[in-house]
């Protein structure tokens, strides 16, 4: 057996062995978000946002539904619970969440000039009833 004087030359990168598949790096997907110790992908985030908005609108409906809907879209006679007088209510229109959503949908559909229409149409807004004597808020009529 003959000994050679020099060892074989060192190559920096060894050729990959046959059948070797490098493991995927966890940072490879861009759509994943790490929240604390939980890793969420885009689909899970979308589901969580949908659940959040459903809960938000449900809570809003419960809170609004707790107020008695005894008022209509026009002025009406009532007894003010604050000053105890028989009054004709004073009404004011107020943009509601529905008004903003309709305007947003019109904007998203490209109707830039039409997006202010919900703010001008009474049927897209709420009517708040106030006492003309003590200016107390009495209730809201929602369409
Ligand atoms: Zn009053």
TrEMBL record:
Keywords: Membrane, Metal-binding, Transmembrane, Transmembrane helix, Zinc. It holds the Pfam family zf-LITAF-like. The chain crosses the membrane at residues 47-67, 101-121. InterPro entries: LITAF, LITAF_fam. GO terms for molecular function: zinc ion binding. Its main location: membrane. It is found in: Endosome membrane; Late endosome membrane; Lysosome membrane. It is a peripheral membrane protein. PROSITE patterns: LITAF. GO terms for cellular component: late endosome membrane; lysosomal membrane. Coiled coil: none annotated. This is LITAF-like zinc ribbon domain. The lineage of its organism: Eukaryota, Metazoa, Ecdysozoa, Arthropoda, Hexapoda.
């Amino acid at each position: 057996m003959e000994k050679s004087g020099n060892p074989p030359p060192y190559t920096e990168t060894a050729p990959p062995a046959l059948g070797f598949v490098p493991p995927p790096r966890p940072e490879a997907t861009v759509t994943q978000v790490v929240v604390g110790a939980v890793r969420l992908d885009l689909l899970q985030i979308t589901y969580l946002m949908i659940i959040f908005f459903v809960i938000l609108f449900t809570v809003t409906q419960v809170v609004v539904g707790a107020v008695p809907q005894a008022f209509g879209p026009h002025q009406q006679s009532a007894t003010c619970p604050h000053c105890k007088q028989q009054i004709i209510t004073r009404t004011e229109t107020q943009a509601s969440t529905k008004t903003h959503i309709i305007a947003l949908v019109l904007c998203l559909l490209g109707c830039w000039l039409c997006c202010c229409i919900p703010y001008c149409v009474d049927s897209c807004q709420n009517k708040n009833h106030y006492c003309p004597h003590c200016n107390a808020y009495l209730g809201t009529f929602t369409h």
